[in-house]
Amino acid sequence: xxxxxxxxxxxxxxxxxxxxxxxxxxxxxxxxxxxxxxxxxxxxxxxxxxxxxxxxxxxxxxxxxxxxxxxxxxxxxxxxxxxxxxxxxxxxxxxxxxxxxxxxxxxxxxxxxxxxxxxxxxxxxxxxxxxxxxxxxxxxxxxxxxxxxxxxxxxxxxxxxxxxxxxxxxxxxxxxxxxxxxxxxxxxxxxxxxxxxxxxxxxxxxxxxxxxxxxxxxxxxxxxxxxxxxxxxxxxxxxxxxxxxxxxxxxxxxxxxxxxxxxxxxxxxxxxxxxxxxx
Length: 279
Ligand SMILES: Cc1cc2nc3c(=O)[nH]c(=O)nc-3n(C[C@H](O)[C@H](O)[C@H](O)COP(=O)(O)OP(=O)(O)OC[C@H]3O[C@@H](n4cnc5c(N)ncnc54)[C@H](O)[C@@H]3O)c2cc1C
Hints:
Layout: E1 7-9, H1 14-26, E2 31-34, H2 38-45, E3 53-56, E4 66-69, E5 72-76, H3 81-87, H4 91-98, H5 103-108, H6 111-115, H7 125-130, E6 134-139, E7 142-147, H8 148-152, E8 163-170, E9 178-184, E10 192-200, E11 206-211, E12 218-219, H9 221-227, H10 234-242, H11 257-277
Parallel strand pairs: 1-3, 2-3
Antiparallel strand pairs: 4-5, 5-8, 6-7, 6-8, 9-10, 10-11, 11-12
Helix pairs in contact: 3-4, 10-11
Bound molecules: flavin-adenine dinucleotide.
């Protein structure tokens, strides 16, 4: 049971959603956007979150798009993880999404909800960071297109009231050789001790992004430089990466820091070997 009352709006346009947010917020109310609702409901039930107003963005047509148009894959922020996996339009994203939660939850969990989650994992970001996707956001009364890394590499930098409308990926990036890896503490369903998504681009460079190992998902140019330094052996590159992470490796109930580093090294060795073989 949710122990507080809130007003629920389901706007049909982007502008209506934003105006509802602005009007209610100006009256001092706490307003949240809502897509799959799994995180909102989970936290609201245990009093870890409250809100006076909930704006459900699933009624907005732009947020429900999943199509290829003019050389771009367009994914609406309210599209569920299962729809993305089942479509197989972007296999790396589909594989990554498929490893999040259980099948029933993935019918609800939206890609936008995952990317804006208050939990640190946000695994759908990994494929988007490596293919250098753009995101369409509605911010301060206008639609803006910005590189995903500007808002989502590290902590989420969306300003209050702004919301994610769509993700745009150049179709030249969706069928490249890839590796998707996730290791959990115990079972198949669980938060990642380490999750990584990697591709090899046409210019033969490996790009990789990580989640679970540090406080936020990230892609690092410094790490990719080491990974692509073929003058070094794979083992040498892996050792250098393990000491060059841009943020500290965490230790928590899922795993110790030492175990995370151990898993990272193994995953990197396999990933480099597999993607270099794909040349
Ligand atoms: C059983 C279970 C297992 C899970 N396991 C994993 C896992 O292994 N890896 C992982 O990465 N995550 C995992 N999660 C977390 C899940 O991906 C997030 O909780 C996600 O936020 C849920 O998406 P939703 O659409 O239901 O979110 P909602 O509850 O609708 O929203 C979540 C947050 O995102 C904001 N938001 C939603 N849409 C937008 C938008 N378009 N623009 C701006 N803000 C928006 C909301 O305001 C809210 O703050 C798991 C969740 C469950 C329930």
